[in-house]
């Protein structure tokens, strides 16, 4: 087992690549990048960024694990438990990633280096905060040159944030259509006139687009760039981005308030789940339809990490802020439509893996979710059971009976939706994939919790 | 659609753009600093009076 596998998303950069060998993830630095990488480490920039928790720490290994003639040094970065992508982030996560990128660029300049990449995919959530994961993103700073990552920063951060800010719509899904960043001409055409009155939006979106249109001519009379100009650019991005905001009130904001009115519904649910969890041996959790993470928090202290997804941008934003403000740093709040989870995209469709390929856990919670999948999205129980069986070993799932008030409301004008929606058909479908370990009625709410274990595990 | 590839020589496209934008920003930040300094000056005077 001495072969190594190059990571499918690590092909762009000639200065090194990410690979795995015997199940461990490494990053190779090539000879061609020796000078830049040495400065990154020896100048103190790396230490500085690690101390501020802005970059993922790594260990240096003086061992050529790939037998490549271009090898200079091998890094073993701290392993990220879970990878997520900007099309799964709420606005505030992308905004934090953008501000982090700018902060790192400014720090780098103080050490004689500069960020040569400004990709949103180089930022990941780690221990509750955004960090840069690519230690090969730094090159020796030449003050006479402009920022090589300028356009990438615009397309990965400035433009998508501006778009959401001005249109007041959650548009993270656009990253799936444009994995290399949102084209400026689209953003510039979509955002309203008032964006032209903002200096930073005008310069980086509208003016850039119009200059680009006019010139395909090379700029020959090149006056050198300067450090001050670079600082101005970074400051402008920072001011612009800090002024962008997006808050959408969640359609579930009153969910728990209302749910609490239903007697001891929530507290009983918590009690049953805690009892079951105390008997299970598990490390990782997926909370499907997490809302603002009340039940994710319940499991977070007992697990390595929790993937908490919800369709609702507002709920995930709320959870993200809670993760930032509390000590619970092992929750990954992501926006996800389980009727259409993130696909595999990019080169060969292997560059960014699908959500279902990344989400492999020991316990999945599907609380007050089944009726949304089965009724709102018309997904048959069998397909829902199949999805969960590909994700988890244990499943804690709540069944909402057809005479539930919420269901009556959902099917007010579509009575035929309820055909085939019953506890019996639910159990029949799930028993093809899971064995039933326990059942609890949640008080007199008419809702039932099931603990299931995947067959043949 | 025009699309400039990443990892290109910045001279071939975004160089001019960045020169122009950074130039405008230089002027903008210059005046902003003056406005800030003037505001600060008056704030100090009125601050003392009160």
Main pleated sheet of chain B:
none
The chain-level mean pLDDT of chain A equals 92
Q: By CATH's scheme, which homologous superfamily of the largest domain in chain A applies?
A: Vaccinia Virus protein VP39
Radius of gyration of chain A: 25 Å
Tell me, what is the CATH class of the largest domain in chain A? Alpha Beta
The quaternary structure here is heterodimer
- Give the number of DSSP strands of chain A: 16
Can you walk me through this structure?
The complex is a heterodimer of chains A (457) and B (50). Chain A is an alpha/beta fold. Chain A has three domains: 5-77; 86-243, Transferase(Phosphotransferase), domain 1 (Orthogonal Bundle); 255-454, Rossmann fold (3-Layer(aba) Sandwich). Helix content of chain A is 39%, strand content 19%. Chain A is built from 17 helices and 16 strands. Chain A has a seven-stranded mixed sheet with strand order 12-11-10-13-14-16-15, sandwiched between helices. In chain A, strands 1-2-3-5-4 form a five-stranded antiparallel sheet, with no helix packed on it. In chain A, strands 6-9 form a two-stranded antiparallel sheet. In chain A, β2 and β3 (24-30) form a beta hairpin. The model of chain A has no long low-confidence stretch (mean pLDDT 92). Chain B is rod-shaped. The model of chain B is unreliable at 1-12 (pLDDT under 50). By secondary structure, chain B is mostly helical. In chain B, 72% of the residues lie in helices and 0% in strands. Chain B is built from one helix and no strands. The A-B interface holds A 12-13, 145-148, 150-152, 180, 183, 185, 199, 203-204, 207-208, 211-213, 215, 218-219, 222-223, 225, 228-230, 232-233, 235-236 and B 1-4, 6-7, 10-26, 28-29.
